[in-house]
């Protein structure tokens, strides 16, 4: 059974190119270490809600877009092994103060499948 890490974050529109470059590099590294799939998506039809929404969740500011991303693994055990390798990979070491997004507003977590068709 597979396992998924999910992420939602806000990216300044003027930093999208830098984020795309970082995401491509990160995705290649995750895949190299054993991830099954790596997806980075940008809002297309995302509206603020009355009670909750993606923009509200990340405290979206003017000039920002919502990103929704996920990484698929074979299992939770594989995910833990892969993430340990990725986090210690020197190619991914970066100064978070210079990251192309505000990491304090990133939402993330691990998910086990409930329905897979």
UniProtKB/TrEMBL annotation:
<dbReference type="Pfam" id="PF07237">
    <property type="entry name" value="DUF1428"/>
</dbReference>
<protein>
    <submittedName>
        <fullName>Uncharacterized protein</fullName>
    </submittedName>
</protein>
<dbReference type="InterPro" id="IPR009874">
    <property type="entry name" value="DUF1428"/>
</dbReference>
<dbReference type="InterPro" id="IPR011008">
    <property type="entry name" value="Dimeric_a/b-barrel"/>
</dbReference>
């Amino acid at each position: 059974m597979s396992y998924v890490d999910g992420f939602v974050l806000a990216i300044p529109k003027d930093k999208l190119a830098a984020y795309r470059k970082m995401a491509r590099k990160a995705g290649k590294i995750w895949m190299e270490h054993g991830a099954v799939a790596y997806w980075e998506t940008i809002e297309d039809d995302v509206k603020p809600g009355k009670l909750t929404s993606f923009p509200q969740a990340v405290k979206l500011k003017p000039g920002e877009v919502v990103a929704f991303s996920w990484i698929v693994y074979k299992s939770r055990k594989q995910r833990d092994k892969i993430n340990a390798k990725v986090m210690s990979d020197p190619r991914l070491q970066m100064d978070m103060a210079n990251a192309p997004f505000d990491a304090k507003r990133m939402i993330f977590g691990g998910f086990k499948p409930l329905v897979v068709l």
